[in-house]
Hints:
The complex is a heterodimer.
Chain A: E1 4-15, E2 18-29, E3 33-37, H1 44-51, E4 59-64, E5 67-68, H2 74-80, E6 82-85, H3 97-101, E7 108-109, E8 112-113, H4 119-128, H5 144-157, E9 162-166, H6 174-189, E10 193-197, H7 201-207, E11 210-215, E12 218-225, H8 231-239, E13 261-268, E14 275-279, E15 284-288, H9 295-302, E16 308-315, E17 318-319, H10 325-330, E18 334-337, H11 341-345, H12 352-357, H13 361-364, H14 373-387, H15 403-416, E19 421-425, H16 433-448, E20 453-457, H17 460-466, E21 469-474, E22 477-483, H18 488-506
Parallel strand pairs in A: 3-10, 3-11, 6-9, 9-10, 15-20, 15-21, 18-19, 19-20
Antiparallel strand pairs in A: 1-2, 1-4, 4-5, 7-8, 11-12, 13-14, 13-16, 16-17, 21-22
Helix pairs in contact in A: 4-5, 14-15
Chain B: H1 27-45, H2 52-78, H3 86-102, H4 108-133, H5 137-159, E1 164-165, H6 172-177, E2 184-185, E3 188-189, H7 198-214, H8 216-226, H9 228-233, H10 238-264, E4 267-268, H11 276-285, H12 297-316, H13 321-353
Antiparallel strand pairs in B: 1-4, 2-3
Helix pairs in contact in B: 1-12, 2-7, 2-10, 2-11, 2-12, 3-4, 3-5, 3-10, 4-5, 4-10, 7-8, 8-10, 11-12, 12-13
Amino acid sequence: MSAVLLECHDLVKVFPGVRALDGVGLRLTAGSVHALLGENGAGKSTLIKVLTGVHSPDGGTLTWCGEPVRLRSPLEAARTGIGVVHQERNLIPGFSVAENITLQKPPARRGLVDHAAMTEPAVACLTELGVDLDPARPVRELSVAQQQLVEIAKALHTESRVLLLDEPTASLSPEETDRLFGVVRRLAGRGACVVFVSHKLEEVFALCDTVTVLRDGRSVLASAPLAGHSHDDIVSLMVGRAHTAAGMRPRTVDRSAKPVLELDGVATAGGHRDISLAVRPGEIVGLYGLVGAGRSELVKAVLGLDRVTAGEVRVHGSPARIRSPRQALHEFGIGYVTENRKEEGVFLEQPIVRNITVTVWRRLARALGFVPAGEERAVAQDLVDRLGIRITGLGQHAGELSGGNQQKVSLAKWLAADTRLLVIDEPTVGVDVRTKRAFHELIWDLAHDGLPILLISSDLAEMVTLADRIVVMTGHRVRGEVDNDRDYDRMSGRIIRLIHDRDEVRS
Amino acid sequence: MTTSVSPPDTVPKERTAGHRMPFWVNQRLGLLVLVIALSVLFGVVRPAFLDQRLVLFPLLRDVATLTVVALAQMAALSVGHMNLAVGRMAAFGAMFAGIGYDKLHLPMQAGLLLCLAAGAAIGAVTGWLIARTGVSSFVVTLATDFALLGLVSLMYSALTEDAAFTTRPAGVDALRSYSLADICAGPVCGSPAVPQLAQFTVLAMLGLGFLYGGTRVGRELLLTGANPAAAELSGIPTGRRVLLAHTLSGLLAALAGFMAAAGTGTFRASIGDDFMLPSFLGAVLGGTLLTGGVVSVLGTLLGTALVGVIRKGLDLLGVGLESLNIYLGCILLLALSADRIRTVVSYRKVVRST
């Protein structure tokens, strides 16, 4: 029987109006990989913050190796031996790899940081992870995956025996994910406990041995062996009822219809070459590729945020020169639901009503630009009802909503504007199973009602579920196009072959 | 300025989640209570404080001017920028009014218009530079401040003999010394404490209240301040909004410069020298966020009034200028902390009841 490292009973954490944690039990044993699952808003992030000393719990007990502990700050948690790698990167870009790794315990001599002595422990941590990185390189030059590994190395340096990984694979390619899994297994083999938070159940089943499921702030399954549960068991524990895969309304696309948006041999200042694609009314065209393939950049160039240097963009058949997102919206009726909802999608510190009506003020405005508050609220309320956005009031700030609801708000503003073409970029990253499902139905229904949609996603399952055609992009070029027959295995084979071909050409 | 001045409709300014926090967390209410309580306190300790002609009139004249200065800062803050050149823009605007009266013999209104146009123009140039180059407003307005410092002094020494325009057209003196007591409807006259100069403040507040509370452009200014990237992608012309915010800032600064000049009777280069700190104090005390996206027109008035009342009251209590500044600093720190304490206490209350 391996040793229990961290244990908690009946943890309670209260925020205004919500009991974020309401009786959570968790036991982390040495040498295990523990899955922490739950929908958005179930309390995973809060639990992580309590375990790492960001929040202090309002009730319950926390014990470390059998002794009760109080973690007053993240630094104290790190000194106790609890490390965390958050979803967002938390490194100092201008500092070197070694400086970042040793940041919490810098080697010092007479009160001054000893730069020479940094390299050795940093290299030791990196070697332990099986990573080959130059410790003197500034972190800003590294890829996202490499930065993540540096953060894990940073946790190793503080001798973390419990390592919390919050959605570590969200922005990794399949190969990078495999590498990360290798690292996680090695850490567990050394007697650490790795807590793995993810929405991707396939990964959880491939990697973890024990599992805790949170629902509405309670642990509905506390530290149970994963082997005894099936995929469906876990999903129904998470959503609280049997998960039924309801069929979607059948949808047909008129392939002879004139395309709403057409790119013909487009090249951009950002490095895209010879991009051609077309989106017809009621059609969902998928733009698939790995992170960094240049998909969002392509859309931004078409919307006027970067220069289109060659080729032609046609909207409703006539050549269009779009100079700004504003012109795209008001002249061409193109809406862009951004990938990065926190930075580019919603106004976190602003009321929901403004977040939704920002695109229609021009239409609502009377003399002197006066916007009647009543009409504004009516537009917003209508969309809140239509999309089923869960809010306490239209004046609530968007930042107080869960990720899925924020994403709905970000979509709502384009629906309010009655756009004639919608570009949806990574709609379900960091969104839980149920909301994901609801989102898929929403997108499907929009297309069913005749709206052309260009869907960007790195989630192949999502592509196969939604898209009618899938355009595959790598390295700022279109590699090919496949008609979707909704058979996941066949589709993934064909798409991966398209991506793979290019690698052969290059080598 | 004790007349009720309420901007139309709801001016957006909830910094806390209004739907959950109790009403007494409202920052403006706290300020109002504080202003009244301090006035009563000073009035009781020094009855002279409530002398309408000798104390309240000049106090309210200062508050009226500084409120416009703070509104100028608020306009820049609304898009998440700042205007370090408010004082110098005020001097720049006032200089044009002075030239207009002294050299061109313009009537009062025409000089005022010239002053406002000059302020708006210099603000627009600043805004254009910021929007166009992407250099931070801090740097650009700091540079503008230095440039104007030199330019304004140079112009005064070139155009005047004793570094001030002293020609005053009809009406300016009235603005300086007339109060509501000079406006009578039959036997009923207004209060001698309220200066007529305050009409400009009221107009500026009504205009900004309507802009930020009721119009599309006002909302777009705030969203540009809240998140420029999301605003651009939502179809807001963020460049033009930044330009507008700085134009407004320059225009209001020039108005404040005119008010200050009319209040002292001369148009000189030193107008606006002490505008910058009060401009931030008034706006921030009133609930405008330094990071943009949230403004409060009424709060700006109350914040400025609070600073004015404290300064005047301590002055009457015989506190010397140096120690006055110490007290002022402490009281402002307390006022700002009180706001934070209120928020934390009410947050705990809500948590406990959950």
